[in-house]
Task: inverse folding
């Protein structure tokens, strides 16, 4: 591959630091997951744009699990980088941490992956540069993201199937021990 069409992963690394303010809180007094998702989308966009040099849109979000609540007054660090590239898409790896400034305790709140697509000025998908992988961590993240992409394609196919490969009787049998009542 022509090295002029390659970029180092470090070139896309981004850290966004945000103070968690009272208006970000949900009814339980913790930071609302939607606020966090919005911030994550922004930082994914920045990494994708830095790598591609193009306008980017969010295609998919994978693996969002909120591990620890974030409190008002904490500083949140959203760290992202391009972990994998396809033709026009990039998988952005993200790690979110919260710092309690009083105790100096840092907690991992979640990690996830955003798939972003690069578009040209006409709004059409456009090719993105390849990656220069410089160390073992980057290589492992690349491998993980590539596997995630394959699993995501399988999941999309399954979700589009409507389970038409099974009869209604088979579906009813599959769920006979579930916490539901099928009344037809």
Result:
């Amino acid at each position: 591959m022509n090295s002029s069409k390659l970029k180092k992963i470090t070139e896309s690394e981004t850290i966004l630091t945000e103070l968690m303010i009272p208006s970000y809180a949900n009814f339980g007094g913790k930071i609302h997951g939607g606020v966090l998702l919005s911030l994550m989308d922004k930082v994914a966009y920045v990494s994708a744009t830095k790598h591609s040099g193009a306008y980017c849109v969010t295609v998919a979000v994978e693996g969002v699990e909120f591990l620890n609540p974030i409190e008002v007054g904490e500083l949140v660090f959203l760290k992202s980088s391009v972990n994998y590239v396809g033709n026009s898409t990039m998988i952005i790896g993200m790690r979110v941490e919260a710092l309690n400034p009083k105790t100096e305790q840092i907690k991992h709140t979640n990690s996830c992956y955003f798939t972003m697509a690069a578009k040209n000025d006409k709004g059409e998908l456009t090719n993105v540069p390849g990656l220069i992988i410089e160390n073992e961590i980057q290589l492992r993240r690349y491998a993980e993201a590539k596997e995630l992409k394959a699993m995501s394609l399988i999941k999309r196919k399954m979700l589009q199937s409507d389970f038409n490969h099974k009869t209604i009787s088979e579906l009813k049998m599959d769920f006979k021990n579930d916490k539901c009542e099928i009344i037809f």
